[in-house]
Amino acid sequence: MIKLAGAWWESGSWWQFAVTLIAGIAVGGMSVWGTLRAANPKRKINWWVESNTSLLSISERPNDGAPLTVHLGSYALQNPRVVELMIANVGSRDITASMFHADQSMRFDFGSVAVCGILARRSEPEGTVLPGFDAEPVRTIGTTSSAGNWLDLQPCLLKQGQSVTVTVLIDGEEQEVKCVSAGLVDVEVVSESPGRRAQAVADAMSGVTFYLGPLAFRFGGTSLTGRSPRILR
Length: 233
Fold this sequence. Notes:
The chain is of the alpha+beta class. Helix content is 27%, strand content 31%. The strands form four sheets. It has a five-stranded mixed β-sheet with strand order 6-11-4-1-13, with no helix packed on it. Strands 7-10-5-12 form a four-stranded antiparallel β-sheet, with no helix packed on it. It is elongated, with a radius of gyration of 29 Å.
């Protein structure tokens, strides 16, 4: 009996059975996953800070020694910076304005810095509707000026694959931007650049190749049936 079991093991039929079983399970699992995904499409927003650049990067003063300043109206900015905030619909379906619960905006908090104004807005691809943004305006009372530290994305339509860039003028040191309010129904909101996710997947695949490479080299001369392949001449 031991001899027969050994012959069965070495004959390769066990490996063929295992491969067939695993392939069947994988195909069945993918079919179920595809059906569930089609029935419950995933909606997802990714947002991230593309750049945060100081406007006063020049350290030299003019020849007359006068300080270099930036004004927004009568408001003198102490540390003006330009921030590019990206918002993208990376899901499989459109996101409509009705999904913003109770018409609640999506709010981004810039920390302790003042959001002084919106310099530009851009939507891609061309032809998609440009959403609206709100920020508390700069208020000046006497010699004191103040502004809010937040930016709101108003309820809007975000088409599948649409990305929105809003360029914001802030006053203060570089700080982490946070999404503090996103009352969206059935929409996942993630602070992550799609490029970073793609890079993480590429790194993971490189790791798999690194570990499986020696195994492939080791067993490269053996077929699934346990017999060495014949070389046709």
